[in-house]
Fold this sequence. Notes:
The structure holds two protein chains of two kinds.
Chain A (H helix, E strand, L loop, with lengths): L5 H40 L6 H28 L15 E6 L2 E7 L13 H18 L2 H4 L6 H24 L7 H5 L11 H19 L20 H20 L9 H28 L4 H16 L7 H25 L8 H19 L23 H33 L5 H6 L1 H6 L29 H4 L2
Antiparallel strand pairs in A: 1-2
Helix pairs in contact in A: 1-2, 1-3, 1-8, 2-3, 2-5, 3-5, 3-7, 5-13, 7-12, 7-13, 8-9, 8-10, 9-10, 9-11, 10-11, 10-12, 11-12, 12-13
Chain B lengths: L1 E7 L4 H10 L6 E7 L6 E5 L2 E5 L2 E10 L4 H12 L7 E7 L17
Antiparallel strand pairs in B: 1-5, 1-6, 2-5, 3-4
Helix pairs in contact in B: 1-2
Amino acid sequence: MADPTIAELAKGLTDTQNALNIVWTMVAGFLVMFMQAGFALVETGLTRAKNVAHTMGMNFLVYAIGIIGFFFVGFGLQMGGVGAVFGGDPILSKEFVIHLFGKDFGLFGTTGFMLHPLNLYTAGVAATFLFQMVFMDTTATIPTGACAERWKFSSFVLFSFVIAALIYPIYANWVWGGGWLSALGTNFGLGHGHVDFAGSSVVHMTGGVIALTLGKMIGPRIGKYTADGRVNPIPPHNIPQVLTGTFILAFGWFGFNAGSTLSGMDTRLAVVAVNTMLASATGAFGAYLYVKAKWGKADPSWLANGMLAGLVAITAPCAFVSGWAAALIGAIAGVLVVVAAVFIDTKLKIDDPVGASAVHGVNGAWGILALGLFSNGTYGQGLNGVAHGVTGLFYGDSGQFIASLIGIAANILWVAPVAALAFFIIGKLVGNRVSAEDEVAGLDIGEMGVLGYDFGGGPVSGAASGASKPAAAGVPSLAQSTK
Amino acid sequence: MKKIEAIIKPFRLDEVKNALHAVGVSGLTVTEVKGFGRQKGHAELYRGAEYVVEFLPKVKIEIAVPDALTPRVVEAIEIAARTDKIGDGKIFVVPLEEVVRIRTGERGEDAL
């Protein structure tokens, strides 16, 4: 056998690198998929036992809805114009663009719908689809917490399609699909444009803004506020679920952030993972210190919110900041989430049973601001077509901070009105809220037809025929004696 | 014969049980119950807002004893269950007409 040529060696090396990148991205995507289980446990644990089948049911079906909506519509809108992925040909390269101020503004992609045609369905495109899909589904499952214990299931189904097919993909295109927010750097000299490494704005702020909008529109749970406007807390039913779910989320988050290198060759992923870990710790501990000082007890719902807030906040800047900055960003997030949740609860009077708006919305915005402040210029060379590393205000680039502010404003101005309009229309079609009778009795029977927890004592359970036999001769069975 | 019902703090159950053993009580029934007294429960905080826990968890002990033993049993419960803090509970003593040991058919104090 002849020795391989230099060209053959080079091709082998490139193929190996592409394979490593795809394998890393897939494994990270699988981790992110498992975050659905974390969300399901956190949201179900923080609400009441009479609604577990409904709350968990929403968190379950949103995974399927998300995949279907993203397959038919969302993926094409988001990534149809992104260009080449994973070293392949630039198949996804049709972006709808408008021209303003002499510049191109990419608004959405126009190819890749249903992963069709066949020449488009490459390994690189498939890896992109899976990874982007599980991110999108994280957004889609955030409003189910804010609207828990009163959201009509059919309205939830329709609205989740709107997130998967429209609200999320458009903003994601602007940031990750080659759209106009990512071009603020090349077009207007604002840093690298709006940068969001793993989705503080794209994923979390989008979900949080939807959560706040829908929470306002659907109204508080019955009994949440007294007639004179005081808060009537509705305690959670299962704290072990909440904390187990939070751990699952923190685990999956390593895929979320470190996987967003989209490259196993990019060893920066280790720095990303450590920054993520640091912020999760300071988030939880910051919340603990603040809550302990303010109220005296370590309410676990705040500890969970604090860890998640730290994770949400570090998601955008995780690749660009120093270790101390990651720890600081997380600590501020841990305090901010408590202040924001109490403000939303007591001042805005928006009933968000799990604190989704404060965790994902407020801290998503904080993460973007933190990127614009703390990025130290050591990473991101060439990102969005700008040569130097991503550099925040504290390291001398005010343009990056302005781009972050524009990114936040664009998120709110796109997401809130579209979510409100879609929710309004769906409300007219099928109704958004369950009846007061079902809400008081619990949504499990009213909406799902089965109790999540059935201990056999309730009026709903009945002995199935043949299920019980006499235990021993001479002992009459209860089933026989009670006709 | 008397039936003694005592509502006590759950964490005092072991001490009360041991004290009852010491004075010669041979059996008792324990139930987990909830209720409130003059304090009407107590306030807790969830996510920074106050709520009232109206029904506090307690343990109810039921014992059937011969008349002669009654004062010593009441005293044993009183001492073992007392923490000198609100919510220590109450002891009720009521007359008991009849006791039957189901296995043997014994009646009255023989069945205790």
